Predict the structure.
Amino acid sequence: MNYQDSSCSVQDLRDEVHQFVEERDWQQFHSPKNLAMSVAIEAAELMEHFQWLSIDQSRQLVQDPSRRQEIEEEMADVLCYLLALANQLEVDLSSAVVNKMVKNRAKYPAAEYRGRFGLRDVPTEE
């Protein structure tokens, strides 16, 4: 299996996480509560890499190979726990994302929100 974004499905990743968990008999620890908490904890660890940096510094951070690898690993941790949670709750993530984007498009019409995140222009840090 080629594990690249362009050729790997969400189901392939879910299966990879499921196999890893099953081989270690960790299903017993994978309650929705524990997995949701783990997503948040790993997301906080990802945020630590960007804490106190300016916008430009945060964009340049991945130019350092060792820092990039650390960031990639934290991102993978977040996704692995999210996939494990989807497995536990039997949530079809692709459908959930597409359905959420339909709601987001209605809530944030491109004509009104293009180039800004709110209806009022807020100065950005540069």
Remarks:
- Residues 65-89 form the longest helix (25 residues).
- The two ends are 42 Å apart (CA to CA).
